[in-house]
Description:
By secondary structure, the protein is mainly alpha-helical. The chain has one domain. Helix content is 77%, strand content 6%. The chain is built from 5 helices and 2 strands. The chain has helices at residues 2-20, 24-69, 76-128, 133-143, 163-167, and strands at 144-149, 155-159. The chain has a two-stranded antiparallel sheet with strand order 1-2. Helix 1 (2-20) crosses helix 3 (76-128).
Amino acid sequence: MEPLNDAVEKEVREFFTNLGRVPADQLVANACDRKAEVLQVAYRQAVNDFEKTQKQVSALEAEAVKALTGESQLDLSVVNGMLLKLRAQLDKDSAAVEEARAKVEADEKNRKAAEAQVEQLLTWAEKYDKASYEAKHLIIAALVDRVEVFKDREVKIIFKVSAEQFLGRIVRIA
Length: 174
């Protein structure tokens, strides 16, 4: 049992060492930034689409007023038909903006959760070497999902937290 404990402890130390080599801000960025960037682009596009449709609706409303006063060459029924279609599109664009905004806000909450997770991991990394036997096992229990032992005594340690999630690259795990 002792060699197994040593193997797990060695991998946990290596995990913490790798985390310690990267600034905390970068760890959070690695976990969150790619998705946040995509969501921000989608949100900006939704806002641009909404604003474009809104301008078209305003222009058609102005044209409808001109049609009522006889200043427009377009028939009022044609303008109203176009206006109905654009207002429906405006409703769709508005819903798309709200959906994109909600996704961005949800991602912000996820970012805060990632920041808390990084802070917790760094705290554990800092205290691990000086921790008591029981405390080390509590930390290991929080980090390690399972340990697989094969017939040839090969040990594979599966972490609950993905190293590449924070480090931005694949890290060897046992």
